[in-house]
Amino acid sequence: MTSENHGDPAGGQPERRVVLPYARPPGPGGPTPAELYAQVPWFRRNGFSSTLILIALACWLCSPIFFAIASSRVGRGPIAIPAVLLLIVAGLALVTVCVIVVTGPVYLPKAMPDGRLKTWGIANKVIAALFLIIWAWICVAMMHGKR
Q1: Domain span holding position 103
Q2: 103: helix, strand or coil
Q3: Are 125 and 104 in contact (CB under 8 A)?
């Protein structure tokens, strides 16, 4: 990461921007898409976010199995605990991905025609923001005892 100073056209203080080397197109003879992708932080890579989404999906798909086993047993106690834990893991994984998507780009290991790395689209940001808003609303409602 490097910093660049840009003068303010109004004559005020210079504007300071952080320049991410993997977010701008490479110059002639510049780095390859693989080299640019290697500079991306691990949590901003497509593979990390996609893995978290798959973990959330797997947890949500497996939790009904434990609930079904628990409801068929007379005691219903300890077997429901893994189902609840799976749902908690799924929720945390999905919230983590949504926060990552809303706070910045998630990069793909492919380059656009101008040389910059491709990123997840605006639809991903909109869905992530909606999910976070709904999740926060549910959390607040649960704290106040409303369902």
Answers
A1: 41-143
A2: helix
A3: no
